[in-house]
Amino acid sequence: MGLMLYCIGADRGSMPPRGLVADETDETDEANSAIDAATDAATDALDTPLQAVSAHGLTAWVGENAEASQNAQDAQAALAFGRAIEALHRTMTVIPLRYGCVFADTAAVEAHLGEQQHRYRALLEELEDCVELSLRIPVVAAETGLGSGLSSGLGSGLGAAGLAVGLEMDLEPVTDSAPSGAELRRGRSYLLGRKQRLAAEQAAVRAAEALDQPLTGLVRRRDIESGWFAGQAMVSAHYLVPREQLEQVDAVLHEAALSRAAETASAPWLLSGPWPPFHFAALAELPPADSADHHV
Question: What are the TM regions of this chain, as residue ranges (predicted)?
Fold first, then answer.
């Protein structure tokens, strides 16, 4: 049947939920009751109950996964997976795992916790009482809205005309078997588009990096990546934010997005979160050992 691994936290007895202290028995009972309530809330988001598997000072939350290959294609199941993790994350610090991480049985889960215990403990310490915020900056080439960002953002003084001149020089025929005029124009157009897109991406990365200064001391980690999101090329900045700094960081990002919208007519910056720190858990995630591994 297999067990889907949702998230990993500290052992129930070693780290109570946030805001509670386990110095006295009644407080420990209260902490465990809160964890049980969070587990129930996570179960409510699913069609199967969650089970806590504790070993080596860690607890893994798993659920039955009778048809892993089918579920991996089910968007609703993936959304429910995320909601279950969010329910647990509201109560305690957890390491969220990727949807599709499946183990054969509880013994395999316990063995995995033992093999990775030091790494998981270090990651739990890094993620302690943190959430994730993301800022997505659309990558828009010059002809579709980035405009002066190509020259001012790059600091090179090259606009579309300058890039075209460079490509003319790069594409001068060097042999007697030169391509036809139509082929040359197509190649020139393709390379120009690629160069403009690269320049736009670099400008977006610099815009994200410019936020490091106002966020100094407010975020624990920042990671920038390029890719596609909702059908649009994006540069995404992900922030690991202590909960106590969440309001300040959110204000800085919103102000930056509003300022950008006032300065340019290009696509708006997108903010998302707070979420469980999926991105930062994935950066440190390893495939589970000796498991029926179905990562998607």
Answer: none
